[in-house]
Amino acid sequence: VQLQASGGGLVQTGGSLRLSCAASGPGRTFSSHAVAWFRQAPGKEREFVAGISWSGNWSGTSIYYADSVKGRFTISRDNAKNTGYLQMNSLKPEDTAVYYCAAKLSDGTYYSSLTRRPEWYDYWGQGTLVTVSS
User: 7 with 20: CB under 8 angstroms?
Assistant: First the structure.
C-alpha cells in the first residue's frame, strides 16, 4: 500500500485545513486498514494525532484523538475513495508540524494503547507541512 498525504499549507490562527491520505497499490483493500495521523514539529518526536479503525472492527468503528486536538480535529475515512481525512479546525501555532498519515492492516487488535505507537503501523505517507501563523 502506498499512501499520499496532501492538503497542508499556511493558515492563520483559528483557521481550518483538511488533510487527505490517498491509498493505492495492490494487496488488501483500504477498508481492511486502520488509518492514523501523526505529526512531527521541528526538534520534537513524532506524536500521535488521531486514529480510526478498520472496517469490521469487532467493537465497531473506533476513533482516538490526542488530548491536544480533541474537539478541534476530526478523523474520517471514505473507503469507496480509498482516502482518509483529517479535518483541522481552530488551528493554533502549536499545531505547526509535518503531518504524516499511516496505515495498519487489520489483525484484530485495535486498542488505544497500540494505535498511538508509530511502530505499530505498516505503511507511511511522505508527510505534508502545516504551518499556523500567529
Answer: yes
